[in-house]
Amino acid sequence: MRIVFMGTPDFAVPCLEDLYNSEHEVLGVFTQPDKPVGRKQILTPPPVKQFALEKGIAVYQPEKIKSSDAADIIKELAPDIIIVVAYGKILPEEILSAAPFGCINVHASLLPKYRGAAPIQWAVLNGEKETGVSIMQMDKGLDTGDVILVRKTDIDENETSEELFDELSAIGAQALLEVLELIENGEAVKTPQPEGDFGYAKMITKELCPIDWSRPAAEIHNKVRGLQTWPVAITKLGGRNLKIHKTVRCDFKGGMAGEVMESDRRLIVSCGDGSCLEILELQLDGKKRMEAKAFLQGNRIEKGTILGE
Predict the structure, then answer these.
(1) pLDDT tens digit sequence for 177-220
(2) Model confidence over 77-121: pLDDT tens digits?
(3) CB within 8 A of 159, min separation 6: which ones?
(4) Is 24 in a helix, a strand, or coil?
(5) Are 277 and 271 spatial neighbours (Cβ–Cβ below 8 Å)?
(6) What 3-state DSSP class applies to 140?
(7) DSSP string, 70-135
């Protein structure tokens, strides 16, 4: 099939790569404009653009996808189908109907749950035990189109958003090729999503970072996992920001919320439900990320210290 691909972040690259290596023809790639990255704000192309340029695929980066220019480019390319994977822009109806087979979207959740911008992070933040990838026929709603294929996977209790990103990205790429074969053969079955409000996976912001140690240990552990690798869960230690990169639930009990229960070779902190978390990796403001054991060798934390103050 002749394909126009729309995608932006790392998550979308395996889909594009598998399409490029298949019998299908990728006519062009639409992706978000280059953005400043890092402390020096260096203008950096998105991962999808980098891959496309390496493979000699034409790249288009319209500031506004709703402009007539974007639709005109797609009509000139004359694709059989448009594939959208974490593009980051809402498509107008003119583009949704610009190809004979329309637009299909690879979405990293079990629709209708977690429609929206950050389904992977919110599945982890909310402590879900299962997630997956849904491939749907796009309509003018936000992730409301008919579902063609679903692939499920379990979420391990210590799995981070970063790890789940990689897993779902690979699952999505494989499922996408299956869906294209079904569409080509006229075998695609499209199942309407049920009506109702199933929640929205809003964008992740730094406002979510502060840890409230009065919350249950499981909830705090999910926050640490869910905010990896950005923007990262944060607490206070002696008035300084302390990023918490990795935790694990442990058998310690008791103590006040945020109280350091052990700080010799292990860093164990009490939570609001009387359960405790062991901090495995952390990062003091202005310092590098470290394992807790190494951190404690150079940073004394007295037993009984209250984190968050």
Answers:
(1) 999 999 999 999 999 999 888 889 999 999 999 999 999 999 99
(2) 999 999 999 999 999 999 999 999 999 999 999 999 999 999 999
(3) 124, 225
(4) coil
(5) yes
(6) coil
(7) HHHHHHHH--SEEEEES--SPPPHHHHTSSTT-EEEEESSSTTTTEES-HHHHHHHTT-SEEEEEE
Q: What is the CA radius of gyration of the chain?
A: 22
Q: Which two tokens stand for residue 279?
A: 């901090």
Q: Phi and psi of 226, rounded to 5°?
A: -75, -25
**Helices of type H across 105-237:** 119-125, 161-184, 217-226
- Residues 155, 130 contacting (CB under 8 angstroms): yes
Q: Which residue carries 């494989």 as its tokens? A: 174
Q: How far is CA 40 from CA 37, 117, 245, 257, in A?
A: 7, 27, 24, 38
Q: Check: pTM over 0.85? Answer yes or no.
A: yes
Which among 152, 150, 147 has a CA at the least distance from the CA of 191?
A: 147
Phi and psi angles of residue 274, each rounded to the nearest 5 degrees, phi first: 85, -10
Which residue bears the tokens 């729309």? 6
Burial class (CB in 10 A: 0-12, 13-18, 19+), 146: middle
The residues with which 277 forms a beta bridge, in sequence order, are 249, 269
Q: Are 131 and 108 in contact (CB under 8 A)?
A: yes
Decide if 126 contacts 222 (C-beta within 8 A). yes
Contact criterion met (CB below 8 Å) for 248 and 275: no
- Identify whether the C-beta of residue 301 lies closer than 8 Å to the C-beta of residue 275: no
Contact 7, 57 (CB under 8 A): no
Backbone angles phi, psi at 122, to 5 degrees: -70, -30
Residue with tokens 């939570």: 271
Distance CA 289, CA 37 (A): 20
Phi/psi at 27 (5° precision): -80, -35
